[in-house]
């Protein structure tokens, strides 16, 4: 793999573009308006095409004005169709952005004959050629880097200026209105940010792939933190990493299969998806693996306590030892789960093994006594306040005993025997 200054600038431009998109994208994700970013990024196309047809050039100011106007029109139309037509939000977005996007494609075909523009560039971007477009000349900085830098700084400035307003309106618009903040103003300010960012990014990643930059890094950051400010930090950081990984994969992975390369903008969008999947799997709080581990831990905890309670009751009847297969049949779970729970209890010093059977230790007996006491007090409480069949009492108490705290148990009262006639163990 040969590396040049062009590759360096491709990553820089991609990172600036993705980071700039991540800022309004974070607010869109928090406000559950992700598809609005998709709609606006598509509907800026007719604004760009109209600017081309009117001015006959790729003047950035005309493009910006046309795109922002159509972007705001998109927001107005979606809101109007949703409220006046009683149409569901997703359907209203689909109606507006598909019609306007198709209209933009029709206009773009007309613009091709009058303006030096490649429709594929508008749709998919041309970040690979960004190095050769240097205006003004002599600085050695591509125009795409300047445009995306300005957009990133502008978005940062707006978010920092209206940080409190964005935060409150993202979570509680009614509270914001009661504090003198206009949710509608913040909404259309966000729409303006989204439209202008889409215009700044369309030459880099196109009007289609920009959706990935708007949505995927913020959605990934949402899996990593629940703090408003940190979401922006994580979104920007993930966007930069995705830009670097995307370009590196675009120039290396295709060569493994005999190809010269692939679309860098497309590879960057794919990289955002790969990062999302990785975080979805390994996120400490919301990752699939951590969730499965917590569920397994809770399940093993319940089985451990069920084993303690069962062995205690056996001792109460003059027995006290049981085989794993007998325990699994009595509890109603797999033998593997029981063996895992027994090993965990043995490690904690709650059970001991004699030959192939298991029995309580003194420590385990103490814990089991507390558990059985909680179970029988719950049966007494439920029978007093919510009379029902004794089998139902036992089933309900079997669930509640696992989540009972000392404070909760103190409110259950005192009793000598449970509704089944079994004695309630003393606190000692």
State the gist of this model:
By secondary structure, this protein is mainly alpha-helical. The chain has helices at 5-30, 34-55, 60-84, 89-112, 119-124, 143-161, 163-171, 173-178, 183-224, 228-256, 264-282, 288-316, 324-331, 335-347, 362-385, 390-400, 406-410; strands at residues 351-354, 357-360.
Structural overview:
- The protein is mainly alpha-helical and 428 residues long.
- It folds into 2 domains: 5-283, ABC transporter involved in vitamin B12 uptake, BtuC, CATH 1.10.3470.10; 291-410, Winged helix-like DNA-binding domain superfamily/Winged helix DNA-binding domain (Arc Repressor Mutant, subunit A).
- 74% of the residues lie in helices and 2% in strands.
- Strand 1 and strand 2 (357-360) form a beta hairpin.
- Helix 1 crosses helix 9 (183-224).
- The protein is elongated.
Distance between the termini: 74 Å
The counted number of beta strands is: 2
In the CATH hierarchy, what is the class of the largest domain?
Mainly Alpha
Helix percent band:
over 70%
Biggest beta sheet attributes: 2 strands, antiparallel
Number of helices: 17
Strand order of the largest sheet: 1-2
According to CATH, the homologous superfamily of the largest domain is ABC transporter involved in vitamin B12 uptake, BtuC
Our Rg estimate from Cα atoms comes to 31 Å
Tell me the domain tally.
2
User: Residue-averaged pLDDT, rounded?
Assistant: 83
């Amino acid at each position: 793999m040969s590396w040049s200054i062009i590759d360096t600038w491709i990553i820089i431009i991609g990172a600036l573009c993705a980071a700039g998109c991540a800022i309004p994208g974070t607010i869109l994700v928090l406000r559950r308006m992700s598809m609005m970013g998709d709609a606006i990024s598509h509907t800026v196309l007719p604004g760009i095409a109209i600017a081309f047809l009117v001015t006959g050039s790729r003047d950035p100011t005309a493009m910006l004005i046309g795109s922002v106007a159509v972007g705001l029109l998109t927001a107005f139309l979606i809101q109007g169709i949703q409220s006046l037509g009683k149409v569901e939000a997703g359907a209203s977005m689909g109606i507006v952005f598909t019609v306007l996007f198709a209209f933009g494609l029709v206009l773009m075909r007309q613009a091709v004959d009058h303006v030096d523009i490649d429709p594929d560039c508008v749709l998919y971007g041309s970040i690979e050629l960004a190095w050769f477009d240097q205006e003004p000349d002599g600085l050695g900085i591509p125009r795409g880097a300047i445009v995306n830098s300005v957009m990133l700084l502008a978005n940062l400035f707006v978010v920092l200026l209206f940080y409190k307003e964005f935060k409150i309106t993202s979570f509680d618009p009614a509270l914001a209105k009661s504090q003198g903040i206009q949710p509608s103003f913040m909404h259309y300010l966000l729409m303006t940010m989204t439209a202008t960012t889409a215009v700044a990014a369309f030459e880099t990643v196109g009007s289609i792939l920009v959706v990935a930059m708007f949505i995927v890094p913020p959605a990934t950051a949402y899996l990593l933190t629940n703090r408003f400010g940190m979401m922006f930090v994580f979104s920007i950081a993930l966007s930069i990493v995705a830009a670097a990984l995307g370009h590196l994969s675009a120039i290396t992975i295709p060569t493994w299969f005999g190809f010269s390369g692939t679309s860098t903008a497309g590879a960057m969008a794919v990289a955002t998806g790969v990062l999302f999947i990785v975080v979805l799997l390994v996120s400490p709080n919301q990752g699939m693996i951590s969730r499965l581990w917590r569920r397994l831990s809770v399940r093993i905890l319940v089985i451990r306590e069920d084993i303690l309670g069962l062995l205690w009751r056996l001792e109460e009847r003059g027995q006290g030892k049981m085989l794993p297969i007998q325990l699994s049949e009595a509890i109603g779970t797999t033998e593997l789960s029981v063996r895992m729970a027994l090993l965990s209890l043995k490690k904690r010093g709650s059970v001991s093994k004699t030959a192939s059977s298991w029995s309580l230790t003194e420590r385990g007996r103490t814990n089991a006594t507390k558990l059985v006491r909680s179970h029988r007090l719950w049966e007494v409480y439920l029978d007093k306040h919510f009379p029902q069949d004794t089998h139902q009492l036992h089933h309900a108490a079997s669930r509640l005993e696992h989540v009972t705290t000392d404070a909760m148990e103190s409110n259950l009262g005192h009793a000598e025997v449970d509704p089944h006639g079994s004695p309630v163990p003393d606190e000692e």
